[in-house]
Design brief:
Elements: E1 5-7, E2 14-16, H1 32-45, H2 47-74
Antiparallel strand pairs: 1-2
Amino acid sequence: MTDQLRRCKTCGTFKPFTDYYKGPCGAFVRCKACCILARKAAYQKNPEYTKNLVRGYRAAAKARGLAATLGDALGP
Ligand SMILES: [Zn+2]
């Protein structure tokens, strides 16, 4: 398991699966370092879009929190 390496499409380095994110950058396509760099580059290119993305995450988290609170209030 641990000796399985995957080649990052961006930097071309062979890295273990633990050095990859499963989500935002596509499954095991970019290593974490490249993912962070890509996100920074995306932010510099289009700060508003990235900000809105983060705002969306926060709103979703807040909605989940509200739902949890409501669930508590409605529960026994
Ligand atoms: Zn990489």
